[in-house]
Amino acid sequence: MARRNGAPEVNAGSMADIAFLLLIFFLVTTTIETDAGLDRMLPPMEPPEEDVVIKQKNIFTVNINRNGQLLVEDELMDLRNLRESAKTFLENGADGSCEFCKGKRDPASSDNPTKAIISLKNDRETKYSTYITVQNELVGAYNDLRNREAQRLYGQDFTKMESEYLNPETPESVREGLKDKVKRIQEMFPQKLSEAETSTN
């Protein structure tokens, strides 16, 4: 009986097919996480046809230094008080045109919510976590006021209405019913959050 020379060979002809099938399997079944960003409306590319004059009293300035300290309207402020201060500014209603505002109508503060602008500026060395926390407090001020008015007018929170309206899985008939409500609340308290150029000092 003749002896075989060497070890038996493995047929590797189908290995490429198996690797290709595994690659397709993992591509199809793997979910790719996307980073959630900040929801901001960028200014248009073209400059406006006419210059817009903004009164200084309609600008609520918030500065964050490299140490994470807040300078709000040129005064040091604790982060815990930022949201309430922003709400007081937004609904001040100095010109008397805002019927739903519950502000003090201080003539030195904002005229009405449609003219009120929050200007945020930070240092280049500001911690990202501090920056995001400040952003959340400022957006929270808008959401609190919008929720209050949505409860008064429609008996539900604005944030819930807006998320349902923006959800693509919401039936079209429901979205149509929410469209005017969401737009009305947004027009009552338009989110005008401006980010000034980062400071290098």
TrEMBL record:
Membrane disposition: Single-pass membrane protein; Single-pass type II membrane protein
Highest taxon in the source lineage: Bacteria
Record's signal peptide: none
Major localization class: membrane
GO terms under cellular component: plasma membrane
Entry annotated with the keyword Protein transport: yes
Annotated localization: Cell membrane
Pfam families: ExbD
Keyword Coiled coil found: no
Coiled coil: none
Keywords, in A-Z order: Cell membrane, Membrane, Protein transport, Transmembrane, Transmembrane helix, Transport
GO BP of this protein: protein transport
GO molecular function: transmembrane transporter activity
Similarity comment: Belongs to the ExbD/TolR family.
Protein known as: Biopolymer transporter ExbD
UniProt source species: Flagellimonas eckloniae
Lineage of producing organism: Bacteria, Pseudomonadati, Bacteroidota, Flavobacteriia, Flavobacteriales
